[in-house]
Amino acid sequence: MKKAKTMVSVIASMAIAAAMSVSVSADNEPAKAVVAVEKFTVGGGFVLEPTVIELEEGDSAAAVFEKALGAENLNGGDGAGTYIASIRTSSEGELLPEIAAALPEGTEVTAPADSQWLAALDYYTMSGWMFLINGESSMVGVADYTVNDGDVLQLCFSVIGYGSDIGLDTSSMAEWGGMAPLYEVADRTECYSAALTNSDIDWSSVANVYATAEDCEAIINSAADVEEAEDEAEEDTADNDTAEADEETADTTEEAAENTAADNSSDKTDNPSTGVADVTAMALVSLGALAIAVSTRKRS
Fold first, then answer.
1. pLDDT tens for residues 49-95?
2. What is the pTM of this model?
3. Theoretical Cys-Cys bridge with 15: which of 8, 155, 212, 291, CB 3.0 to 4.6 Å?
4. Which residue range forms the structural domain that includes residue 99?
5. Which of 168, 189, 210 is the last residue of a domain?
6. Mapped to the 3 state alphabet, what secondary structure does the chain carry?
C-alpha cells in the first residue's frame, strides 16, 4: 500500500508540473515595438505604416529600424549606423504650404540629389530625418537607444525648424533656426500602439500631418473593438473546452469506477491479496481526472 501511494504521488507531481509548464509557455509573449516612417512634410504619406516588430533582448533602435526597413534601405545601403541620413523611397514631393511660407525670403528649394532616396539636405539646408520615441524627440542616436516593450518609434522627415514642421516646439533653439510648431500635430503614440492589438488597420486617415485627435481616436477605438471581440471569442472557446473537459472527466471517472468495482468483485473471488493493485488503478484514474482539471483551469 505504501509503495502504491508513493508511485501515485510522484506521477501526480509530474503531471501537474507538465500542465503548468504548458500554461507558462503559452503566456510568454515576446516584447514588441511599433515602427512608423513618415514623409508627410513633402506630401508623401507613410514610407512604412505603423508596423509591429518583435524585439530581442538589448535591441537598439538602429537594429529595430533595420528589421523594419532592411539595412540595404538605410544610409545608401550601409545600414542604420548611429544616425539615419537617408531612406530608400521616392524623394519626389511638394512641400506643404506652411513649410514653403516659413522658409526665409529668397530661399531656393533644392531638388533631391537622388530620386530613389529621401535624404538630409534634400529641399532645404535644415532638412533631415527626425527620430521620435513615444512622440518625443530623441536626445540620443538610433544606435544608443535600447528599445523597450511597447515603444513607438518614428522616423519623420523634417524640412525646417528641426522638427517644427512635424509638431515639435524648437523655439528654444531659435538662434540655430528652431521655431514654434508650424501647425498643430496630434500625438500619434497611442494611435500607432493600436497596431499591437489589431493588424488590420486602415491608416489612410492619419497619413498626413493634419490628422486630428479625433482621427487618431477613431483608430484607437476600432482596435479596442477588435480586441474585445477577440477576448470574447477566447472566453467562449475556453468555456466550451471546460465543459467538454468536465464531461470527459465525468465519463472517465464513471467508467473507471465501474471497472474498478468489477475488478474488486473478481479479485475478491479469485485472489483476496490484490488490494495494492486496486489502489494503484484507482489512483491512476484519479490522476487522469486531476491532470485534465488542472490543465483546463490553467488555459482558462
1. 999 999 999 999 999 999 999 999 999 999 999 999 999 999 999 99
2. 0.69
3. 291
4. 33-189
5. 189
6. CHHHHHHHHHHHHHHHHHHHHHHHHHHCCCCEEEEEEECHHHCCCEEEEEEEEECCCCCEHHHHHHHHHCHHHEHHHCCCCCCCCEEECCCCCCCCHHHHHHCCCCCCCECCCECCEEECCCECCCCEEEEEECCEECCCCCCCCECCCCCEEEEEEECCCCCHHHCCCCHHHHHHCCCCCCCCCCCCHHHHHHHHCCCCCCCHHHCCCCCCHHHHHHHHHHHHHHHHHHHHHHHHHHHHHHHHHHHHHHHHHHHHHHHHHHHHHHHHHHCCCCHHHHHHHHHHHHHHHHHHHHHHHHHC
